[in-house]
Design a protein that fits this description.
heterotrimer; A mainly alpha; B mainly alpha; C alpha+beta; B: 2 domains; 9 helices; 0% strand; C: Fumarate Reductase Cytochrome B subunit; Rieske Iron-sulfur Protein; 9 strands; 55% helix
């Protein structure tokens, strides 16, 4: 304890940048708490009305683990070439033992992971879990969210059917569209960026190759590294209080809460298994979109990105591009700077904002198509 | 002026010629596609019945311009199946298309152009080509692919598969929850021992 | 005659005597409702005899009862071959456990002098009957395999017929002697229940399964010191036993459910000859499409102009798709003056391929977000999501002698002087540069 005070005094005594930086790091990475006893045995979870929110992060992690396992099985048979990708997926579906179940679990679990990641974002926001000393946890979490969405975007291309390639084209086109708002020479930058993502002039083998590398190696490594940091911080600082009132009681993380966590995971796995067993993910798409990609033919009707992009996609259709661009930039900025912007906000207000955001996401995702059609005519 | 007794049969003959020869020339029947898209409210293409998703006209495989000798012979054969009950293997039709020709005959199919909704009543109720549990005629109305066993109305698939796999679901539930129970007690036991030590 | 006695009269007699006798016994001599445990007299042999015996027989009897009570469900569960195998193998293992236990118990009862002092004739009778019964059962399981399945249609039906007071021995009449002996043995055992130690089956201490752990307060100081530790050890042991049971059972189910699937996953699918051929055909088709792509790309690298179509084959209402020099889709129409119009088909909104049919106003439609483009000017309609016009592409016309006779879209001078005959033979090419 005394050494910490010593270092603090020394640091603040300087008032210099290095002193402040040292202070900051020491508060976020308190060395005296980095032991088994503090991080595991003593850790407690407050019990209150928002306690259900403490499970959302674990569920996201659980679904990620399922993705890794099912993904490992899939790469045994998937072939990332333009001529073989579609057929290899069909092969997995029809001929590989258990293949259709594994592929379906991968698809359902990806949607589940993204759903719970967003829920986790809203819940931790409402519980004000981002304040000091948990800022790094929050920032790591936001980056993790972007990585998760990128997982979805890159994975969607891999079956190489009509919806996959055309939806990716549409998505990448929106990057290029930013160019018209940039001055002078910078206006070609988005196009250069887009061609870097694509690997060539239009979506083709280079795109498939690099999206595959991203999806299978680079993003998992990045996510695991950041997740390690995120979880380390969570164990170090403990579960945040979550509500303004002092919790009447709290339970031990290990075993009581972990036990309940496991029960939730067991239930989640059972539901996922039943859904994956009974409803093939492709049944939600019209069948012309499931045909193999035809580069020389017309684009079929009904191309749209996956459901978790609807909250950006439909506004893009309805509003001018620059509006969406500005709103997205603002949202991303606010997300990253939340620990400082909302430092003084009450939990009641935060909860209100979170509910508003949740309502927008729900309405735009579920009714986006209907809204678009109603407003278009 | 114009002799009606000559003209009238002439017109009639001409009409018959048009009706019988006209549709025989027209290969694609877009009325069915329009009906299905309106009914099911989702886009469908020619691949529901045809071998090529862009329709039977063209030079690609599965279209009238892209057939080899053996396939052309099969096409000629299939074109003569005006009555029902004839097994055909038309190269421009997929399994569902051939099933339609077999169970209706081309004459009925052509007659149904004006009433595409009646195709549901004419198709046999028990025919399910892809074996997903949803009959072909229901897949026709739902706008789903009758030759793909992973494609059908999701809600229908949920109930059909739940019923089909109920033993698997029950055993999986048993396994998952017993492992969950076991792991939980394992953690409790370990924590008891560690608490004792601490 | 003998059959109707053994399989109709005896069962009813045995069950009646069992019920009546047990009720009489509990009212007159309730203290005798016990297994007359001899643990106090001889402990070790009892452990090795009684434990395996009871574990085995309880499970076996429960399985027999399940098959009797729900034959339909039982049959459905056993229709999965893996489950049938597991059940039968478990049956073997458990009956061997029973027999070993019984042997130990028998040896104990016949050789230990202390036990001999309290042995009655009925004890020996019971022991003998049990050994015969279990031995018979095992023999049936080995010699007349899959008894768990065939019993559904034979012995279960016979038992139900007895229970419903419509006895029908035709179900079991043709069964082998071992099975009939097993059935008779069962009735005999039921008959002797009220007269023997078997009566302890009716006083099973079920509440023991859920009793809370006992915290013994010792007055002995040595034991009192260790009491806390002992308590924790015993409680944690309960948890570990439950843990092991739960994980083992769940893991076992998981294993038999997924093992063949996982093994076949790694072993690889074995397709039939027809399926392999079809797969190869599909792969070849896809490879051909990719090869076509590559050759198109090469063509666009090497040539300065690419052939689209003969001018006479172009229509003014339905355009012909082609691939332009940047490997993007384009559409070729015949214009009003008979010269071609080549327009890019990559929608300027989000890149979808525009349709090739002109409507009444000479526009083509992009189906993705509904933008109409005028073919002649390339401009999108008012309020369309696309803002920029579709660019026109440069073209040349060549006659049959490979001479360039016209070029477009900006060079207007050549076209007007061409005769209808020349136009009829002309061929359309797209060029690298515009006009």
């Amino acid at each position: 304890m005394d050494d910490i005070k010593q270092t603090e005094r020394a640091g603040s005594g300087n008032g210099s940048l290095t002193g402040k930086a040292m202070n900051f790091m020491l508060e976020r990475f308190p060395v005296e708490k980095m032991n088994f006893h503090y991080m595991f045995e003593q850790k407690e979870v407050p019990v209150h009305s928002m306690s259900w929110g403490y499970y959302t992060g674990g569920l996201t992690f659980f679904f990620f683990v399922i993705q890794v396992i099912t993904g490992l099985f899939l790469i045994f048979y998937y072939q990332p070439t333009v001529s073989d990708a579609y057929l290899s997926v069909e092969f997995i579906n029809n001929h590989v033992s258990g293949g259709s179940l594994i592929r379906n679990m991968h698809a359902w679990s990806s949607s589940a992971m993204i759903f719970f990641a967003m829920l986790h974002l809203l819940v931790t926001f409402a519980m004000k879990s981002f304040v000091k000393p948990r800022e790094l946890t929050w920032i790591a979490g936001v980056i993790l969210l972007f990585i998760t969405f990128t997982f979805g975007f890159t994975g969607y291309l891999l079956p190489w059917n009509q919806i996959a390639v055309n939806a990716t084209k549409v998505g990448l086109q929106s990057i290029e569209d930013v160019g018209q708002y940039l001055p002078g020479a910078l206006s070609t930058l988005p196009q250069v960026l887009r061609e870097t993502f694509q690997g060539e002039a239009s979506v083709g083998q280079s795109t498939l190759g690099r999206f595959y590398a991203l999806h299978v190696v680079i993003l998992p490594l990045a996510l695991s590294a950041l997740l390690g940091l995120h979880l380390f911080q969570v164990q170090l600082h403990g579960m945040s209080r979550g509500v303004d009132e002092k919790p009447k009681r709290s339970e031990k993380f290990f075993t009581a809460f972990f036990f309940k966590d496991l029960e939730v995971w067991a239930l989640a796995f059972f539901i996922l298994f039943c859904l994956a067993l009974c409803i093939p993910f492709e049944s939600f798409l019209p069948f012309p979109l499931l045909a193999p990609y035809d580069p020389l033919g017309a684009t079929p009707a009904g191309i749209k990105p996956e459901w978790y992009f609807f909250f950006v996609y439909y506004p893009l259709e309805l509003l001018p591009f620059w509006v969406i661009l500005l709103a997205s930039l603002a949202a991303v900025l606010v997300l990253f700077l939340t620990p400082w912007i909302f430092r003084g906000t009450s939990r009641k207000t935060l909860r209100f904002i979170a509910v508003l955001a949740a309502a927008y996401l729900f309405v735009m995702t579920v009714f986006g198509q209907a809204i678009y059609e109603a407003l278009k005519s | 002026m114009i002799k009606m007794d000559v003209l009238a049969p002439g017109i009639l003959l001409w009409l018959f010629a048009v009706i019988l020869s006209g549709p025989a020339e027209v290969q694609a029947y877009p009325q069915f596609q329009e009906f299905v898209e309106k009914r099911s409210k989702q886009p469908v293409n020619c691949a529901m019945c045809h071998a090529n998703g862009n329709g039977p006209d063209g030079q690609k495989p599965g279209q009238t311009g892209g057939l080899n000798e053996e396939e052309t012979k099969r096409l000629e054969q299939a074109r003569t199946a005006f009555e029902k009950g004839v097994e055909v293997e038309s190269p421009i039709l997929n399994q569902f298309g051939n099933e339609i020709v077999r169970s209706l005959g081309r004459k009925k199919v052509i007659a149904l152009i004006r009433e595409p909704e009646k195709l549901y009543d004419e198709l046999p109720a028990g025919s399910d080509i892809d074996g997903d549990g949803v009959p072909d005629r229901d897949e026709y109305l739902d706008g789903t692919d009758p030759t793909n066993k992973f494609h059908a109305s999701p809600l229908k698939l949920l109930f059909i598969n739940l019923n089909q796999f109920k033993m698997h679901v029950a055993l999986a539930a048993l396994a998952i929850f017993s492992i969950n129970l076991g792991l939980g007690h394992l953690i409790k036991g370990i924590s008891l021992l560690s608490r004792k030590r601490a | 005659m003998l059959d109707s006695f053994l399989y109709v009269a005896l069962p009813y007699l045995a069950v009646t005597i069992c019920i009546a006798g047990s009720i009489y016994r509990i009212r007159r001599e309730p203290i005798t409702y016990s297994a007359l445990s001899s643990q106090f007299l001889e402990n070790n042999g009892l452990l090795w005899g009684s434990l395996p015996w009871h574990i085995g027989i309880i499970v076996i009897i429960l399985a027999h009862a399940l098959a009797f009570l729900c034959p339909g469900l039982w049959q459905q569960i056993l229709s999965v071959r893996a489950v049938l195998l597991v059940v039968e193998v478990c049956g073997y293992g458990l009956s061997i456990l029973c027999i070993l236990g019984l042997v130990v118990l028998a040896v104990r009862r016949l050789t230990s002098p202390r036990i001999q002092a309290v042995t009655t004739a009925m004890d020996l009778v019971v022991l003998l009957l049990l050994i015969l019964q279990v031995g018979c059962g095992l023999m049936i399981a080995v010699q007349y395999r899959w008894g768990s399945l065939w019993s559904v249609g034979t012995t279960c039906q016979y038992l139900w017929s007895l229970a419903l007071f419509q006895p029908d021995i035709s179900y079991i009449q043709d069964l082998p002697h071992a099975v009939k002996g097993h059935i008779v043995g069962a009735w005999l055992l039921i008959l002797v229940v009220p007269f023997s130690r078997l009566i302890h089956m009716f006083s099973v201490p079920l509440s023991y399964l859920t009793r809370p752990p006992q915290n013994v307060i010792w007055t002995n100081p040595r034991r009192a010191e260790a009491a806390g530790e002992v308590f924790v050890k015993e409680e944690s042991r309960r948890h570990f036993v439950l843990a092991a049971g739960g994980i083992a059972f769940g893991g076992f189910l998981l294993l038999i459910g997924t093992f063949d699937k996982i093994f076949n996953f790694f072993f690889g699918p074995r397709l039939s000859a027809a399926e392999e051929t079809k797969l190869m055909q599909h792969k070849l088709e896809r490879l051909k499409i990719t090869a076509e792509q590559r050759s198109l790309e090469l063509e666009r690298r090497e040539s300065r102009f690419i052939f689209i179509a003969d001018l006479k084959d172009l229509s003014d209402t339905e355009g012909k798709y082609f691939i332009d020099f940047s490997m993007q889709p384009g559409i070729a129409f015949k214009g009003e003056n008979g010269l071609p119009i080549l327009i890019s088909a990559k929608c300027t909104h989000l890149g979808c391929t525009v349709g090739n049919r002109r409507d009444a106003e000479g526009r083509i439609l992009c189906p993705c977000h509904v933008s109409y483009f005028d073919v002649v000017t390339g401009k999108p309609n008012e309020g369309a999501p696309a803002k920029a016009p579709l660019p026109h592409l440069g073209w040349i016309l060549m006659n049959s002698k490979d001479q360039v006779i016209a070029r477009g879209p900006h060079d207007k001078t050549g076209g007007v002087n061409l005769s209808a005959q020349t136009l009829a033979d002309a061929r359309v090419f797209v060029t690298r540069e515009e006009g």
